[in-house]
Amino acid sequence: MSRFCLDSDIAEIVARLGPAPQALAGKTVLLCGGRGFLGRYFCEVFARLNRTLLKAPCRVVVLDNLITAGEEGARLDDDAHLRFAKHDLIAPYRAEGGVDFIIHAAGIASPFYYRAYPLETLEVATVGTKNLLELAREKQARFLFFSSSEIYGDPDPKHVPTAESYRGNVACQGPRACYDESKRLGETLCHIYHERYGIHTNTIRPFNIFGPGMQEADYRVLPNFASRIKAGQPLKVYGTGNQTRTYCYITDAMVGFLLVLLRGVPGEAYNIGNPVPEISVVELVGRIEAVLGRPVAHNVVEYPDSYPADEPNRRCPDIRKARLQLRYEPGVPLDEGLRRFLGWSEGAYRGEG
Ligand SMILES: NC(=O)c1ccc[n+]([C@@H]2O[C@H](COP(=O)([O-])OP(=O)(O)OC[C@H]3O[C@@H](n4cnc5c(N)ncnc54)[C@H](O)[C@@H]3O)[C@@H](O)[C@H]2O)c1
Q1: How far is the CA of 278 from the centre of ligand 1 (A)?
Q2: Is residue 314 predicted with pLDDT exceeding 70?
Q3: Is 23 exposed, middle or buried (CB count within 10 Å of its CB: 0-12, 13-18, 19+)?
Q4: Which residue's CA is the nearest one to ligand 1's atom 34?
Q5: pLDDT of 256-301, one tens digit each?
Q6: Burial of 95 (0-12, 13-18, 19+ CB in 10 A)
Q7: What is the pLDDT of residues 32-41, one digit of tens each?
């Protein structure tokens, strides 16, 4: 159980993609941020595709500077077609040979860490993105940028569920600006390289993805809760607890990400998430109690200094564009995702609270 993911989840992702990944056969993928939560799933999925589906293996070069990758991230898989290089994307990466796909999933994604590393957060999404777009231009590679649902800021309730066309309500100064604004600029860079140089860019705006493999010290809400549950401590709900979110289980998210990589319309951005249910953090505690079949104590507390306040009130994706253009359909209900995640964290976490 200490492994970072469930084999059955990787098998599910590959099965749901059908023959679409055949486009990766014999290709080279540069996977940036490849030792983070999402990056490690990409590694596992590519390794399984190589073993089970692809007519010729795809070669994966994994880059990460390990700034937040933690213990699990630093432990590299032994796979003949995956190669790791420690590299900080703030500096250009010189790739030998051809590169067909660049996945830019490097970033500082957890609010706790972007409060601690604001300049590194800003630079990986701006300087890092530009460096990688230059590489895409040189190699004529397809480019996939991981932006965030945070680019919408605190949306006007008229625009919830939020579609890709919503322009956002974002502060350029404040505790979250280093993340939100740099992701917006990263998207602008993708747009320019697509318009000016004809690079096939796509942007993904993930909405609260969760699942096995999130580090115990990730500080996003579900690892926080799971760690406190393991420790037998009451959960800490920040702010009022009335802020709403949707939660997307990792297998649904990975299917969506790969569909964007393989089928995305050039230049387009896609929301990837699960639009139901949109629930408050206090209601999420209730869902966890139902899944565990026992009461779980919680306290509503002030934001700690280490956590950037000014959270959006609501976050819920409109995924009609991904449904229509990519045939994307999330299939794992929240309770089932929670059951898989909490089962895994019970074995993997130490209960550091
Ligand atoms: N997981 C989510 O729910 C979610 C939601 C919205 C956006 N995103 C975005 O998706 C991407 C991946 O998310 P994640 O959850 O895997 O995050 P993560 O923090 O687990 O992983 C990101 C990885 O990027 C690496 N990294 C950071 N700066 C780097 C640099 N300068 N050079 C090289 N590597 C660097 C880190 O060491 C880490 O391993 C991030 O860009 C994040 O902002 C994720």
Answers
A1: 24
A2: yes
A3: middle
A4: 64
A5: 999 999 999 999 999 999 999 999 999 999 999 999 999 999 999 9
A6: middle
A7: 999 999 999 9
Say how many CA atoms lie within 13 Å of 307 toward its Cβ: 16
What are the two backbone dihedrals, phi and then psi, of residue 91, each rounded to the nearest 5 degrees?
Answer: -100, 145
Question: pTM of the full predicted structure?
Answer: 0.98
CA 60 – CA 46 distance, rounded (Å): 8
Q: Which atom of ligand 1 is nearest to the CA of 215?
A: 20
The whole-number average pLDDT for the span 67-86 is 83
Residues 215/302, Cβ–Cβ less than 8 Å: no
Q: Are 322 and 274 in contact (CB under 8 A)?
A: no
Q: Which domains, ranges and CATH numbers included, belong to the chain? A: 7-210+249-273+316-332 (3.40.50.720)
Quick check: CB of 69 below 6 Å from ligand 1?
A: yes
Catalytic amino acids? Answer: 179
Task: Let me know: does 174 contact 111? Beta carbons within 8 Å.
Answer: no
Residue 286 is inside which H or E element, if any?
A: helix 281-292
